[in-house]
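For consistency, the fold was encoded as tokens, as this record shows:
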Amino acid sequence: MSRFKVVITDSDWPDHELEEAEFRASGLDVDLVHLDARRSGDMLPCVADADALMVQFAPVNREVIQRLRRCRVISRYGIGVDMVDVKAATERGIMVANVPDYCIEEVSTATLAFLLCLNRRVILQDRAVRAGSWAYPPREALPVRLSSQLLGIVGLGQIGRAVAVKALALQLRVQAYDPYVDESRLGTLPVTLVGFEELLRTSDYVTLHCPLTDETRHLIGAAELAMMKPTAYLINMSRGPVVDQSALCEALARRTIAGAALDVLAQEPPSPDEPLLRLDNVIFSPHSASLSDESVQQLRRQAARNVVDALKGDRPRSVVNAAALGFGAGGLRQ
């Protein structure tokens, strides 16, 4: 049996026991190489003879892909594949696989946690108590009942739909914008589909759950922020570059919008002198909304399973460029 080389370009966990267990169970003879390459140049010397890549955040760009002599699959630790040049991979006949059902529960829950913190002013009140205050907020800073507020969801995929279900349970009214979803795909979900501008102008909370593409880069800029109500909040759970960060900082500083909650930033981690960090009307988490013990185990095992399937000559469960590579029914090339 052939020996395969699998390169993990980068990951946030200290060991790869779960991945190794999947490879052992498959019966494949795998040489697993772990790099700590967050830049494309750092991985170039090691990937040329790889049969598969597993990538978390490292930029697998055209230069890297052109070096791959025998790679069958690039398996992403996650849902989004914006760090992989999918077009270049497709041109080389390389499958790009992801884990599309990873972290749906976690990110949707984190979204509502952010929303509740913004609504109830949790962070601001915590800071006030720690500073010695035990006073009620002034009337103009009192929370508004959720049942009177409107949540606008941008991107109604699996995570966006999960957010809608949880928000409805909290008695929020929910509307959504997604150019790839129509009424027939809503089923029994009581969500109103609206245009992008209408969503921005009318929502009390705007939460982003769209992939990073050429179409969505800087989807939220100065013009879009100016459309939002001065009492509205922006929540970004997608990718940092979906929002023009400079424009957001200015809008928050000028109180053009009331505040923001960000799990993602344009630069991660941010520079210590990032202006957003100095503002008191924005709260952060370190791109960690997807994490739970269960979600990380699922992610690692399924990303490895995608590699196993590809090395065995099968189609992995989720291949984002399957159509471009000519896969038909049953995972066979047409």
Summary: The first helix runs from residue 17 to 26.
